[in-house]
Amino acid sequence: xxxxxxxxxxxxxxxxxxxxxxxxxxxxxxxxxxxxxxxxxxxxxxxxxxxxxxxxxxxxxxxxxxxxxxxxxxxxxxxxxxxxxxxxxxxxxxxxxxxxxxxxxxxxxxxxxxxxxxxxxxxxxxxxxxxxxxxxxxxxxxxxxxxxxxxxxxxxxxxxxxxxxxxxxxxxxxx
Length: 175
Description:
The protein has 4 helices and 11 strands; from the N terminus they run E-E-E-E-E-E-H-E-H-H-H-E-E-E-E. The chain is an alpha+beta fold and 175 residues long. Helix 2 packs antiparallel against helix 3. The model has no long low-confidence stretch (mean pLDDT 89).
């Protein structure tokens, strides 16, 4: 399995266990799905001992968490962005990625700039019809970290969003 982490913060963002494809040769389009996770909670999880306190040993209840699987599994945090704020953010973020590429893979810089410009143009052109939501890793580093975009495709089921991640802003970790 490959875990994709934010190259700046090291936060886990997603893994290759989700359906994904590379678009514009610079963005991973990752398919999420709506899910509900159930966790059983009992006193002993919190250091209590019901039998010693005269109670029974049955679980106190179940906690359910519903949402998008990628977001829940990777503890992504929702952040608000206006179009103007995103434009400012993405301009700085693209500079950061280019700086990192110049150090690690200089042959990729020109290609990345061209492809990323087209990808960002497409994102901004679809801004109003896609109603993007924005997610960052659990460190909540909005200034320098990778901001993923999420939208629900028009032809989708309304429960399976697409999340967009810039490939060159990620580092892969095999586990």
